[in-house]
Structure prediction request, 467 residues.
Amino acid sequence: MSKKQIIPKKTPMLEQPPAERVKNYDEVPYGYTAEQAMAEAKRCIECGRPLCIDGCPVNINIPVFLKFVNEGDFRAAINLIKETNALPAVTGRVCPQEEQCEGKCALSKRFESVAIGRLERFVADWEAAQGSMPIPELPPPTGKKVAVVGSGPAGLTVAADLAKKGHHVTIFEALHEAGGVLVYGIPEFRLPKAIVQREVDYVCRLGAKLVKDFVVGAASTLDELLEEYDAVFLGTGAGLPWFLNVPGENLNGVYSANEYLTRANLMKAYRFPEYDTPIVRGKRVVTVGGGNVAMDSARTALRLGAEESIIVYRRSREEMPARAEEIHHAEQEGVRFELLTTPVAFHGDNGGWVKEIECIRNELGEPDASGRRRPVPIKDSNFRIPVDVVVLAIGQSPNPLIPKTTPDLKTGKNGVVIIENETGKTTKKAVFAGGDVATGGATVILAMGQGKKAAKAIDEYLKTGQW
Prediction:
């Protein structure tokens, strides 16, 4: 470590008080001021081997970005980030930085790491506040055409990177708004939709064309796209929800998290009565699962009027895959946690509406394939929780529509498209893939990292024709 004076703790970031924020959909953290951002960037100790870069899936030059912020040169900072990351306002908010760049920070061995994510968010928001988001100088058109299927994090990354290479890019989005999971999955209070739209607009200004309400696999097959385009990237995400396959799961009031959050976010049920989207607003809502999607669902339930929001998770708190910040925010807002608990049945009334969730207690056994200790049911420990709404947030798989209409596109476990990890190449010539369609449910930044690798490989393929 350098001899620079060490400031052990992060510069605090103010947030909405929990009692107020559960009554609105405004973003929870307020973000840094310029003075706070410069003070936080100053905490970087300028270590000789900056592992923070290795921890970033899109390889932002973090030490130089922090140096620019420390010096107050916010324009240089955001320009540097955008060399490798087209969605900084998004990743600055939803990245699991504690496991990635900040987890590798040299300070984190003894102190709190530099708040890299907060600073990325700051410079992205600073740029937007200037009223101008300039685009880099673009090369002359190459004449090559690429179809990007899906406008989520992976698709937007590929589109941005290829547009900056001079290729003609068309993004095909199945829904009526672009952004993928950023608009249908992540709630407004964690990622405002205006920010997603701002980032989508930036990618379009780079030259990408956006076609919405277009379902590849139905409106057009993959083979038909390849008749018009030189290469195709599949970034269709993981929109097929998993279920528990227990009795009563088909009762009214039992939602998948995909449907619940899509109704609340994309279809704007949270803006009732302006948008009269049907959604059951239960007084007691149980969310099953322990990831970020479960936290989003449980916190959304409170904002939709639930008097009690409960998370049921089969392992202990230590095994929860959700970000520590999301768990902390849920606890602050009053979400109750029933840990070491597994649902075994749902019970309804004569009208077919769910009224109780029957659970069994667990104890932790030996680690399973995930590396986490396996939940082992405790005999005769069954109990019931009265409930009005249940949200199942236990995972998801890719939609099978495109593989079903493309026989030579190979898929693996849970329907993920098989790819080469370093290139995103699929088993079908000229077709690449990345993000949740190739991994199952993962993080925004990992999808973007795969998108960057695929974009590089697509550019090489377009130049050489070699597969």
The radius of gyration is 23 Å. The longest strand covers residues 354-367. The chain has three domains: 18-129, 145-239+397-464, 243-394.
